[in-house]
Amino acid sequence: QRELAASTMAAATDLLSEPNTAEMDADTRDPQPFARVVCNYENLSARFKLDLGSSWKVQYSQIYFRRVHKMRAIVTAAAQRKWCSGPNKPTHVQQILRVQQNERSFMCGTLFKHMKAKPSILDEYNARENYEAPPAERSKYVEEDDVLILEDETGRAVLNGLAIPVDELVTGIVIAVLGAEDASGEFIVEDYCFADLAPQPELRCKSNAYVALISGLNVGASGTHMLPLQLAVDYLTGQLGSTMEQELVSRINRLVMAGNLIEEPQEKDLHKQNRFKSKTAAADSLQATKEVDALLVQLASSMSVDIMAGPNDPSNVTLPQQALHRCMFPRGASFATLKGVTNPYEFSVDSVRFLGTSGQGVDDIWKFTSLTDRLHILKQTLFWRHLFPTAPDTLGCFPFYQEDPFIIEETPHVYFAGNQPEYATDVVKGHDGQTVRVICVPRFDTTRTIVLVNLQTLESQPVTFPADLLGDAMR
Asked: What is the pLDDT of residue 266?
């Protein structure tokens, strides 16, 4: 018994004594901080910045003229590669008015889609003046009797035929069509051709770094909880996860916030708001801005952060949206690492070219086509070589008259659209070997997901902070 008591006392003494440092894990004994990776960065969005003296006293027809003037030679070259390599070469008609009846030919122009269900401000105005109910809002405005019309500077031609998918195309696309005009004056299409992918800069990146993408925070929105968002901030700043996870996070060079930082106003029509609701909405918006500012302080103190405006944010509604003013985030703006950028936003990190939007183009095309796959819509805009083909028809934009800045003149390596319902990605390859990583960045407020893009491999991976890990706190 004495021996047992002595051994028990010795064991207790061992438990109360100082730990044996030789047996401790090296990381626990002397943790080493990870330095944030440094990369070469260049902002390439100068063409999206509006001058203070920019005039709105210009007809919108000018942007269509500039678009077709810039794209005609490109689309024609793609059509000739596709249709003029065989023995039966079709005739190339330079102008729509010169097309000959029953002659197999191809011509180039801008699509106009006549849609009876398309919303019209005149219909809304007439309904209000006549005390009638305004036209009902719809999720999609596609009808079976929609008609495609090809236009150029000289005239227009109605397109017909089963070969051209009317329900999958929108106004503003520059396209080439192959076929013949029938006795009724309609052009019967047997095939069609887009511009295809633009030339792509050489990819020379060898650094194993990442760029993070996030969108749709919608801070202040009903039901939105700050806990998953704070977890994402802690993850990006290296305060969450294992040592291996923190080492990965240290290789994230910058964070791009692709629009909709703040909640959408509950009542957009100011005429329907009473004074109390207006004041309450303004107070809620101010509080949401302060909460976003607090998050930006944490992020900008650890990494480079680029903020894009979205449709819900206090910026100009028409595209291109200009950078959010620094006075909105006074604390975050004190960091040089925090930058407001335009929407669209083009930049390069270690020679990897990024081009992205806050998602308005994809959302608008989704409404005016039968397409339901948003990733497919995003990929199609690459082949159309245009970020917002529906602008200015159904999507507001500035009336550019010297150039159309939304034309994709160089294919990016990473092409993204923010504020999408779910994460999706794919790789698109062009006829000259172009390779593009296409990403639908999901809304964070509904998916709790951010996206990491590896600059070396162009692989993308979602990082999700699921509700089941947070228990009842998120419910």
From this structure: 60
The span from the CA of 114 to the CA of 149, in Å, is 7
Distances from the Cα of 58 to the Cα of 61, 62, 262, 398, angstroms: 9, 8, 32, 10
| Dihedral angle, C-alpha 346, 348, 353, 357, nearest 10 ° | -30
- The β-bridge partners of 341 are 308
E strand map for 104-144: 105-114
Q: What is the pLDDT of residues 226-258, one digit of tens each?
A: 889 999 999 999 998 889 999 999 999 999 999
pTM for the model: 0.89
pLDDT digits (tens, 9 = 90+) for 74-113: 999 999 999 998 888 999 999 999 999 999 999 999 999 9
Distance CA 38, CA 303 (A): 10
Q: How is the chain split among helix, strand and coil, in percent rounded to 5? A: 30, 25, 45
293 φ, ψ (degrees, to nearest 5): -60, -40
| Start-end of H helices in 130-271 | 226-236, 243-249
**Region 179-183: what's the mean pLDDT?**
96
Q: For residues 180 and 204, what is the distance between their CA atoms, to the nearest angstrom?
A: 46
